[in-house]
Design brief:
HCP-like protein; 137 residues; 71% helix; Sel1_AlgK; 8 helices; Sel1-like; globular; TPR-like_helical_dom_sf; mainly alpha
Amino acid sequence: HILGRYYLWGEYVEKDEKRASSILVDLAGKGHWGSRGWCHKYGYGPYEKSVEKAVECYRKGVEEGDEVSLSSLGVCYDNGTGVDKNEKEAASLYHRAAEKGYPEAINSLGYCYDIGRGVEVDKKKAVQLYSQAADKG
């Protein structure tokens, strides 16, 4: 999934949305709920572009403990995309994904602690999390 994201956003590789789509659609077809959610988010392959269906996929992935789904659903709660905005729930989901070592969630949780979004401000914790995320790439 991370490789697909890199191609989608042009991180570490030249941006290539077709390649990103191909990777994510392949993973979605193999039952990866986080990737399937992203396919719905962007309307890739046979997946209808639908925020509601993306959220549904993330929820199924969360039930299985998938870190991509945990982090992606956290973003939804953070922004109020497809769900009611709930910063505490977002921080909780980022925390669960961060415990599994997912760099994007670790960084997002660091930001939560940095500005007090859904958690009490804790600058030391924020720096620790930012550093941990950077170490993971």
